[in-house]
Structure formats: C-alpha cells, structure tokens
Amino acid sequence: MRVGLVIVSHSAALAAGVTELAAQMAPDVRIMPAGGTEDGGLGTDFDCVSAALERADSGAGVVLLYDLGSAQMTAELAVESLTTPIRAIVADAPLVEGAVAAAVCAQGGADLDAVGSAAAMAHAFVQGEAFDEMDLDRHVYGGGDGLLERTFVLRNELGMHARPAALTARAVAELDVEVSIRHGDQEVDARSVLALMGLGARGGDELLVRAVGRDAQKAVDALAELLESGFGEEERPGAGPRRLT
Questions:
Q1: Cα separations (Å) of 41 from 13, 53, 195?
Q2: Is 10 an active-site residue?
Q3: pTM of the shown model
Q4: What is the mean pLDDT of each run of 10 residues along the chain (245 residues)?
Q5: Which terminus of the chain has fewer CB atoms gathered within 10 Å of its CB, N or C?
Q6: Which residue range or ranges hold the HPr domain (predicted)?
Q7: Strand-pair partners of 206
C-alpha cells in the first residue's frame, strides 16, 4: 500500500496535466485529478473531490494538493466530511512541484506524514532557497558501515531533469542507507527529487555519489546502473561510456 494523491484544481485540464506528470514519476501511486465544476466550467466541486479522495486511497492515506484558495477550502471540506476511515491531509505546497515531490516520496513507500512533508518542502524549491547540504563525513550510522564514494559523468544530454531525478530518488528510497549527490559545491539528499533537480547538473557534468549504511553498496550499484545508462535517454555527444572511480 502507498499513500495516494488528489490534485484539486479550478481547471480540469490543469488537474489532469499535473496528475499525468506526477504519475510519470510514481507509476505505483494512485493519483487522482479533481478539477473543474460538474458542468465543465472553471471552479471546484465538493463531490468530485470527495470521489477522487475515495479512489486515491489504498489504505495508507491520501495527500490532497490544490492550486488556489477556494480549492484549498473545498479540499479541506472533503477531508472534514469523510465518513469512512481514510486518513487524509491537505498539503500547503506549490501544486506542480509539491505533486512531483509527494509522488516520488509515496512511490518509495513513505508514510502519510512524510509524503505531506515532502510536498510542503517544495516551497523552498519554488522560492529559490538552498537545500540543506549533507555532510556524510560527520554522519554517525548505527551499523558502523564505512563511507562509499564514486564519481560519474552524466551521459544524457539534459542531465538531472525531472525524470532522471525521480529515477534516482526512487532507486534509493527503500534502502537502508544515507545517500548524497554532489555537483560542484552543492551536495544534496539523493532521495529528494526537487533537490536533485536544483543541482542544475547537465550532460557531461560530474556527480559524486556518497553513501553510508548497510545498503551503501546496493545504493551505489543501483545509481551506477542508472547513471551509466544515461537514464535510458540519448547520450550527450562526446561524453563517452566512461565512469570515474
């Protein structure tokens, strides 16, 4: 079971578009659009949102995201009016970035509170705030496992855009490990799709992968497979099939 999402918008087309984008990042997460009025106009509809909320739940709860103020009120009313034992929260988050972050977090098996927090943290990405850098040199891990490091060259032309960032985050989400990726002077949590996108890494750039924990080797191997394959995308001309160690 994974946490589900409901996208509440004044526009049916916008809700469907955000749902489509988020679903590309999280194929196993139930993401339901709830946009527009019953007659196809602009606005929000309580019954539509309530029905989407019911469909999105698989037993792990539902996070609702919204576009404008009245959509928030409709979403909150739908949650308050629940008559079934569904846990649901309305996230205060930018719609698109919040939906992507929440979807990837839910795909990794996180609980309701964690998925809601992932959506809310998207505010930092929208506002251009720096993400907290990770310092694995000072990280104390209960298992006592050592630090693994490996450097790769981004082989796909577009670099760490939305899809590769989501694949990267999903690859390590369920592992018992702390993983960071460094690009230049920035080092971010490999589980954060928005932080990875915020690195601005392009084709041909070098990334340093650092992992600590019981599954450190599994994490590095999983990321190596993704990075060395160019995420299944067209390689950057001249990048060459190489990996730095």
A1: 11, 21, 36
A2: yes
A3: 0.75
A4: 96 97 92 94 95 96 94 96 92 93 91 93 64 54 68 91 88 89 91 86 94 94 92 62 36
A5: C
A6: 147-234
A7: 153
